[in-house]
Design brief:
The protein has about 400 residues and is an alpha+beta fold. Helix content is about 25%, strand content about 25%. The strands form four sheets. Strands 1, 2, 9, 10, 11, 12, 19 and 20 form an eight-stranded mixed beta sheet that branches. Helix 1 runs parallel beside helix 5 (about 150-165), helix 1 (about 15-25) packs across helix 9 and helix 2 crosses helix 9. The chain binds flavin-adenine dinucleotide. Flavin-adenine dinucleotide binds near residues 45, 173, 325, 363 and 364. Belongs to the L2HGDH family.
């Protein structure tokens, strides 16, 4: 095979969802997904909070806000239909002081502007009735937030994508890109044995997570001039002693979380009822692949959460996992950035869609992102067709 219609780079949740969506949308197109690791979900998508977010935290009109609200609905529908384990357990966004109460009001207005369903303010007695273990003055209850088994979700997306005809190939690292003389791209990749090959395609989807800026650079894009450079931002989690885990039953997010420059740490529940605290956020070096959790940080986590989780003791926390976010905002305080999802027509790269900086809420948005990519490529993919499929 030396030519396909569509190549997707990356078998994280976004690449898998794109393979599924596009194979479903264009049954006559040949789709090849190339992944450098030995299996799907070995990048960002395997190290998350597994939260189905409601969409309250993102600025109105942003891709994050729009795709989170629509993605939340699509994801629940998919999980119900395909029997992917999930639970709509709801999230409490809590306020602890006067400053937080003001932020809570503007967050509620933002949630309404974003179209987050059923989000509402609850007072302290309602909060105590729902979560007696939490110490806060008020909260927004977001019933549409939940949790999902993200590994089973990825497994189902991979299965459905293949059942619809997409080819998923592991241990193949993309090492080069060139524009083909007659339009489209020539994609060079290396297999596990180091053998180099290449394949032509009309459309190319860059869903390479932490490696997405490198792929864009291979396509000739200056990642500094365009603001496409990724900065790695580490997040650590600590697991809470199982005896205390049942003292909280919902997701609990302080109104200003560290992820967005605040001081609060989220309280995450999983489908087994375990409780984790995290992630925090601090920039790492550009090549960092450091996934260690520093046991000494347990004390800092404890200090940050003890005000709203009064039942915790410092020795209830054990190091859990760490992850690296693909941040677009620079470490030196530039404003938060939206997802970058772009069909690069105006750079003369028709057929290339870059997905860069797909940090949280990328799990929630996987299906809406995939639909968005399909819509961007509709004018090009509608035209290309190769014999041999369909
Ligand atoms: C700490 C943390 C917690 C999070 N929690 C949540 C949450 O609770 N809810 C939520 O909605 N979102 C969450 N997110 C966001 C979510 O994890 C990401 O948005 C999502 O996983 C991104 O998926 P992806 O497919 O773009 O990237 P990835 O999962 O990283 O996939 C990219 C793939 O591309 C492959 N690749 C890279 N370069 C190449 C190459 N040259 N050739 C071939 N393959 C290549 C990689 O090996 C990788 O498998 C969280 C993120 C972090 C960091």
């Amino acid at each position: 095979m030396d030519q396909v219609d569509i190549v997707i780079i990356g078998a994280g949740i976004v690449g898998l969802a794109a393979a599924y969506e596009l194979a479903l949308r264009w049954p006559d197109k040949s789709i090849l997904l190339l992944e450098q690791a030995a299996a799907f979900g070995r990048g960002l998508s395997g190290r998350t909070s597994e939260v189905i977010h409601s969409g309250a935290y993102y600025p109105p009109g942003s891709l994050k806000a729009r795709l989170c609200v629509s993605g939340n609905k699509l994801l629940y529908e998919f999980c119900r239909r395909e029997q992917v384990p999930h639970r709509r357990l709801g999230k409490l966004i809590i306020a602890r002081d006067d400053d937080d109460l003001k932020k809570l009001e503007s967050l509620l207005a933002q949630a309404a502007a974003n179209g987050v369903p059923e989000a509402g303010l609850i007072n302290v007695s309602q909060l105590v009735a729902l979560e007696p273990g939490i110490n806060a003055r008020a909260a927004i209850l977001c019933p549409s937030s939940g949790i999902v088994d993200s590994h089973r979700l990825m497994a189902m997306l991979a299965y459905r994508a293949e059942a619809c005809g997409a080819m998923l190939v592991y241990r193949h690292e993309v090492t080069g890109l060139q524009q083909a003389p007659n339009g489209g791209f020539q994609v060079t990749f290396q297999d596990a044995a180091g053998t180099e090959e290449s394949i032509g395609c009309q459309c190319l989807i860059n869903a390479a997570g932490l490696g997405a800026d490198r792929i864009a650079a291979m396509a000739g894009i200056d990642i500094d001039e365009t603001g496409y450079r990724i900065y790695r931002c580490k997040g650590e989690y600590f697991a809470v002693n199982n005896r205390k885990a049942k003292l909280v039953t919902r997701l609990v997010f302080p109104v200003s979380i560290r992820e967005l420059k605040g001081s609060g740490i989220p309280v995450i529940k999983d489908l087994q009822g375990r409780m984790r605290l995290g992630p925090d956020a601090h920039y790492a070096s550009s090549a960092s692949a450091d996934y260690t959790v520093q046991p000494a940080n347990a004390r800092l986590f404890f200090q940050l959460v003890q005000g709203y989780l009064p039942f915790l003791q410092p020795d209830d926390l054990q190091p859990d996992l760490a992850a690296l976010r693909p941040r677009l905002q620079t470490p030196c305080g530039s404003p938060p950035r939206d997802f970058l999802v772009k069909h690069e027509v105006d750079r003369g790269l028709t057929g290339l869609v870059n997905l860069i900086g797909i940090e949280s809420p990328g799990i929630t948005c996987c299906l809406s992102l995939a639909q968005y990519v399909g819509d961007l490529l509709e004018p090009v993919a509608g035209k290309c067709h190769l014999p041999g499929r369909g």
